[in-house]
Design brief:
The complex is a heterodimer of chains A (121) and B (235). In chain A, 50% of the residues lie in helices and 4% in strands. Chain A is mainly alpha-helical. The longest helix of chain A has 24 residues. The chains are: A mainly alpha (121), B alpha+beta (235). Strand 1 of chain A pairs antiparallel with strand 6 of chain B.
Chain lengths: 121, 235
């Protein structure tokens, strides 16, 4: 069910799914995925409670590698890849590390528009 | 306006912090803006407390009842500025250290070191954002963080990026020409301080494209607020 949940979250990313083709040429073998994940664990000091949790995190990690490749294609002027968040689903990432409420509406009563400043010279 | 500007080179930006597994980005954006404003007002960089806001700031936006500052569950920089005006200001990080979870409020008014004089919302106009940045110091901004989970470095300029704002960060400068090898050309960019530690992005920083062709990329120009500080002398 964890794996299905990760796949569902990937499918919920409409911006990316619309424009990216298949990743068949980039599919990793299980051995390669394991090596990548072990390197990620060492680099960021990750430790998981049991083998089941680790297997799930590895599946999320693999999904995030594919996501990073799609981000690289959509954002070619930046570098995308493995980060310390690579074992988190997009929903977990949102819940734990983002926290701007209300979509960022700045309509606070009492606040006022900044005066227009000169920008020439 | 100068072609390039970076408040880090002028001593107005503190060290990169790490919010941990807590949705308190809004408090880091707020403290960063006030650190810069306080530096401009006093000439001294004080590293300010986010935990005070996480624990004590429950200010709501009267026009949006769901938008209340709520520790690790999120908040807004503008409502946080409003809280700081009402409460008196912020203590230092050292006095009220960050622990990454919401606790009971231990705010000590006698230990305030930075006070908000005023705050404003800057229009969605890149020249005005740059002018306010140069004049008033680092700006608290909202951004869509969809591409930030996998970001390692370079100038981010996604072909498509949502404008729904879900992350609070600090705008500290801009550059006129960040070379992008893939496009074989230079691209103007904003310099953004994040709160995910130094081992994320470019030593904790994110670059996102700006200019007419990148207008409001990832909503970066949509919610920009500036703050001014007054000097507080300890008794």
């Amino acid at each position: 069910s964890s794996s299905a949940s990760a796949e569902r979250e990937e499918e919920e990313d409409p911006l990316i799914e619309q424009v990216v083709g298949g990743d068949d040429d980039e599919l990793m073998s299980e051995l390669e995925a394991e090596a990548h994940f072990a390197s990620f664990e060492r680099r960021f000091g990750k430790a998981y409670g049991d083998a089941g949790e680790r297997a799930y995190r590895m599946s999320v990690f693999s999904a995030n590698l594919r996501r990073a490749r799609r981000h690289q294609r959509l954002d070619p002027t930046a570098e995308h890849g493995v980060t310390k968040f690579s074992d988190l689903t997009p929903a977990e990432f949102r819940d734990r590390f983002l926290g701007l409420r209300g979509g960022g509406r700045p309509n606070l009563a009492g606040s006022r528009d900044a005066p227009i400043l000169p920008t020439d010279g | 306006l100068p072609a390039d500007f970076d408040w880090r080179e002028h001593g107005a930006v503190g060290p990169v912090k790490d919010q941990g597994s807590c949705g308190s980005c809004w408090s880091f954006s707020t403290s960063g803006a006030l650190e810069g404003a306080h530096f401009l007002a006093t000439g001294k960089l004080e590293v300010l407390s986010e935990q005070q806001m996480v624990d004590c700031d429950h200010e709501c936006d009267p026009s949006e009842s769901r938008a209340c500052d709520s520790g690790c569950n999120g908040g807004l920089m503008t409502t946080a500025f409003s809280y700081l005006m009402k409460s008196g200001g912020l203590q230092t990080e050292k006095d009220y250290p960050y622990v990454g979870r919401e606790n009971t409020c231990k705010f000590d008014k006698s230990k305030i070191v930075a006070q908000v004089k005023n705050f404003s919302v800057v229009s969605v106009n890149e020249d005005q954002i740059a002018a306010n940045l140069v004049k008033h110091g680092p700006l608290a901004i909202g951004i869509n963080a969809a591409f930030m989970q996998t970001y390692i470095g370079g100038v981010s300029c996604p072909f498509i990026c949502g404008k729904h704002l879900d992350h609070g960060v600090l705008l500290v400068g801009y550059g006129s020409a960040g070379y992008t090898p893939i496009r074989f050309k230079d691209m103007p960019y904003w310099i953004i301080k994040n709160s995910w530690g130094e081992n994320w992005g470019e030593h904790g920083y994110y670059k996102i494209c700006r200019g007419p062709r990148a207008h409001n990329k990832c909503g970066v120009d949509s919610m920009v607020s500036t703050v001014t500080a007054i000097h507080t002398k300890k008794e």
